[in-house]
Amino acid sequence: MSLGDAVSRRLRSTNARERLEAARYLANHAKAGDAPAIREALARETVSWVSGALRRALEKCSPSAGLTTPSPLPSQVDRDDFTEDFAAEVYAEALETTTAQLLHEVEPLVGSIKLAAEGDIPNYEQSLTKTFVDRLDSLLEALSRLRRAASAPKLEEFDLSVFIDDVLAELVLVPPMNIKRAGPDYLVVVGDKTLLRMCILNGLRNAIDATGALADGIDQAPITLAWGTTNKEAWISILDLGIGFGGSLSRAFDIGTTTKEGHLGMGLAITQQSIKSMSGRVVLVPNQRGARFELRWPIARET
């Protein structure tokens, strides 16, 4: 059996949440040699959500053994298994599966509409149709990010300071906008770099938007990006001195919630699901001026 010890142990656990964690990880990372162990786990599994993830894992490592069409979402869960932690895993599994099915059906349609419109509509590049098609493209991209956020994390060790430098290199700042770094130069943490990159970029872009909306004094309102660790957690904090958060904190992380015209309202929802996938949390704190956006997640791998 080629599965890692931690994954194998979770597949055999009496705790449904641990089995679902392992199954969802395998749904994204299974290899051909894992198929026998996955079949064995599937044969003894009694919880429908775990079985569904195991079937996707089997399809991942052995396509001919899987289903040719998306499997339906499980309709019920044993109440004895439905703890709060398990509920969070079920939500993530449902979110990932649903967005995958939606993208599978809708992406080809949008592509066909775009090709047809380019051929049928004069001056397509300047047309209102292109504006709406581009908005559909943006929605599909956001759904793809949401699906990635809900997937099982791929954890690795890395230097957080170097990683943050790489993320900052993706941003284009227009003076006098500036970002101040504040953190140790060498700090090894464990996390999913793809998920963290989405989280940090969303926090920074929100801070940049809030700062750029100031009537004046942008040069006196630097954005501070800080990072560090406690004995249990790694953390990243983004502090801005912009116009502040004007929405409802209780709904800030709901899908579709936004205070910005023309935005889809997916950024904070994707951020929350991304950090939850790493067993972490995100905090948004409005200040008298500006806001603080903070990410926290476990400093080490679970054993």
From TrEMBL:
<dbReference type="InterPro" id="IPR036890">
    <property type="entry name" value="HATPase_C_sf"/>
</dbReference>
<dbReference type="InterPro" id="IPR005467">
    <property type="entry name" value="His_kinase_dom"/>
</dbReference>
<keyword id="KW-0808">Transferase</keyword>
<dbReference type="GO" id="GO:0030295">
    <property type="term" value="F:protein kinase activator activity"/>
</dbReference>
<feature type="domain" description="Histidine kinase">
    <location>
        <begin position="101"/>
        <end position="301"/>
    </location>
</feature>
<dbReference type="GO" id="GO:0004673">
    <property type="term" value="F:protein histidine kinase activity"/>
</dbReference>
<keyword id="KW-0418">Kinase</keyword>
<dbReference type="GO" id="GO:0007234">
    <property type="term" value="P:osmosensory signaling via phosphorelay pathway"/>
</dbReference>
<dbReference type="Pfam" id="PF02518">
    <property type="entry name" value="HATPase_c"/>
</dbReference>
<protein>
    <recommendedName>
        <fullName>histidine kinase</fullName>
        <ecNumber>2.7.13.3</ecNumber>
    </recommendedName>
</protein>
<dbReference type="InterPro" id="IPR003594">
    <property type="entry name" value="HATPase_dom"/>
</dbReference>
<dbReference type="GO" id="GO:0000156">
    <property type="term" value="F:phosphorelay response regulator activity"/>
</dbReference>
<dbReference type="InterPro" id="IPR050351">
    <property type="entry name" value="BphY/WalK/GraS-like"/>
</dbReference>
